[in-house]
Amino acid sequence: MVPVRFLLLIPLIALLNGYGVEARIRRYKWEVKNEFKSPDCYRKMVITINGRTPGPTIRAQQNDTIIVEVTNSLFTENIAIHWHGIRQIGTPWFDGSEGITQCPILPGTTFKYQFVVDRPGTYVYHAHYGMQRDSGLYGSIIVGLSDGESEPFAYDYDRNIILNDWYHNSTTEQAVGLSKVPFQWIGEPQSLLIHGRGRFNCSSLSVPSSDPGLCNTTNPDCFPFRLIVVPGKTYRLRVSSLTSLSALSFQIEGHKLTVVEADGHYVEPFVVQNLFIYSGETYSVLVKADQDPTTNYWITSNIVSRPAPNTPPGQGVLVYYPNHPRRSPLTIPPAAPVWNDSRPRMAQSQAIKARRGYIHTPPAVSDRVIVFLNTQNELNGRRRWSVNNVSFTHPLTPYLIALKHNLTHAFDQNPPPDGYDFLNYDIYERHPNANTTSGNGIYRLNFNSIVDVILQNANTMNPKNSETHPWHLHGHDFWVLGYGEGKFDMFNDPNKYNLVNPIMKNTVPVHPFGWTALRFKADNPGAWSFHCHIESHLFMGMGVVFAEGIEKVGKLPSSIMGCGQTQGL
User: Fold this and answer.
1) How confident is the model at residue 22, as a pLDDT?
2) Peptide bond into 182 cis (omega under 30)
3) Which percentage of the chain shows pLDDT scores above 90?
4) Which pLDDT score, from 0 to 100, does residue 502 have?
5) Which residues in the chain land under pLDDT 50?
6) If 0-12 CB within 10 Å is exposed, 13-18 middle and 19+ buried, where does residue 367 land?
7) CA angle 314, 320, 321 (to 5 degrees)
């Protein structure tokens, strides 16, 4: 249980941060359990919240307190839920990162998360234990402005859509394959979901099933997602991606998308036909229902940045009222972008700037620069992902608890490297020495220091191949200072940084054979994960941990303990 004095501190923290006094408490009770569902017409066991996947949408206003009581009714699996994009100021123990900020929630037990949503915007929540996000444990968080405040753009209606990819193998089967020798890759997803609905081609099953319900295209679970619009009205679509693997393009046939928000920050508006979106990102786009109202239109998602010829596109329907919701569009779905053309994806990344009047100017210089080289390697015959040749492994004792209680034997006290061999490493070639090391050391940051992180992509274990990696930082937003192709030049590329109107985000892509530069202030006491948001990549070691201001963290609630060396604390 959280000590009473810390519950009393929550409104005080809000007041000290300039928040109003009208904040509300929003309470939710969730039961997490296994159920059989057919989101893409193929029946499999999924993880639901109160019988649903995606789970319930959390709706709140800025400065509200969210209380979620989670009961783990899974028979054999632990869980943890991360509140993606919520900075957890004053409550780092409720970030929901198993192994980083808490022990997992055991089967048959109930855990209470309690935190303040301090900024308006579009966010998500999802499992942060193993690869459970891929099993359906996810949903949306919509935080509105405080009463009396308005946004810098107008719309008539507000809707949210979560994009996902979907596998028929269980996450346990995937994890076993990723860990075995020889390595067994999870492959491309069987389908793409638009707000929990997709369409798998049942006739493509390699072995026909004698069970007619195993794959049934008449199952209502997999009827296409339909968004009903009123002609002439403008809609704010909050589009989020929680894919396990895939980078996506999203489009609505015949309609322009005006981007106005990214990860909770207002964007200088720009118009796209395809919205490129990476796992962990959230956007708001404005769509006006200004086309022929006598017909309906396709909503589609397609995989980009990797070949997936056997994965059908995600398909939904934009329904113009009063057309019948089941009426299909008269056209064929619009063509997908070329999957391996990174130029439009890079162009969109570079187009995202902070909106005039809402610019948070970054500090002119940083106190520390850390360069992270992303590589694919091998460790004892197993395929791994590494950062600066260190493949991350979780310790048994969560970092936040180990740091606060000075449990020095809980993890490696030696820090990982701040860089790599910049001069000699060829990012375009498979490295001749593919071996890596494993470790669980952390990056200790001086409190309130300004930190630059350079994410550098390189060749994988496959010749002439580099992948897209969306990196997500817990507990902070960061300024996106720039993107580039090739190897980062530490002497010249910083001169190209955008220090005038960079967007702030919590998740950002690193494009193939490219780099992305970030800057953030280490001003949130706690231990925070920074990792690739692709489930299999994090599982294979693609992440690090930052620690800052641990001495300023309050007394930890006993509810987060119970594993590793925390027993008995």
Assistant:
1) 67
2) yes
3) 93
4) 98
5) 1-21
6) middle
7) 130
CA 324 to mean position of chain CA atoms: 35
pLDDT of residue 520: 98
DSSP string for residues in 196-246: TB----GGG-SS--S-TTSB-TT-GGGSPEEEEE-TT-EEEEEEEE--SS-
pLDDT, position 212: 80
How far apart, in Å, do the first and last CA atoms of the chain sit? 14
Q: What is the dihedral of CA 73, 74, 80, 83, to 10 degrees?
A: -70
Q: Are 298 and 318 in contact (CB under 8 A)?
A: yes
Q: By three-state DSSP, how is residue 262 classified? A: strand
Q: Are 278 and 507 in contact (CB under 8 A)?
A: yes
Find the helix or strand (DSSP H, E) in which 403 lies.
Answer: helix 399-404
- In the chain, the amino acid numbered 334 is P
| Average of per-residue pLDDT values in the chain | 94
Alpha carbon separation from 403 to 8, 368, 451, 508, 547 (Å, rounded): 25, 22, 21, 28, 9
Helices and strands in the chain, H and E counts:
5, 32
pLDDT tens digits along 467-478: 999 999 999 999
Joined together, the tokens standing for residue 105 give: 């929630």
CA neighbor of 136 nearest in space, from 46, 69, 232, 9: 46
| pLDDT at residue number 10 | 44
Q: pLDDT (tens digit, 9 = 90+) per residue, 498-508?
A: 999 999 999 99
What the block records as the tokens of 1 is 């249980």
Beta bridge partners of 495: none
How confident is the model at residue 216, as a pLDDT? 93
Q: At a CB cut-off of 8 Å and minimum separation 6, what does 13 contact?
A: 89, 90, 116
Rounded to whole angstroms, what are the CA distances from 317 to 279, 296, 298, 333, 569? 23, 7, 5, 10, 54
Amino acid at 290: D
**Going from the N-terminus, what domains does the chain have, and what CATH number goes with each?**
25-148 (2.60.40.420), 159-204+213-351 (2.60.40.420), 368-566 (2.60.40.420)
Query: What pLDDT score does 19 carry?
Result: 43
Q: Which residues contact 425 (CB under 8 A, 6 or more apart)?
A: 373, 431, 458
The DSSP secondary structure of 430-455, one letter per residue, reads --S--B-EEE---EEE-TT-EEEEEE
Task: Please identify which residue in the block is written with the tokens 């005006």.
Answer: 258
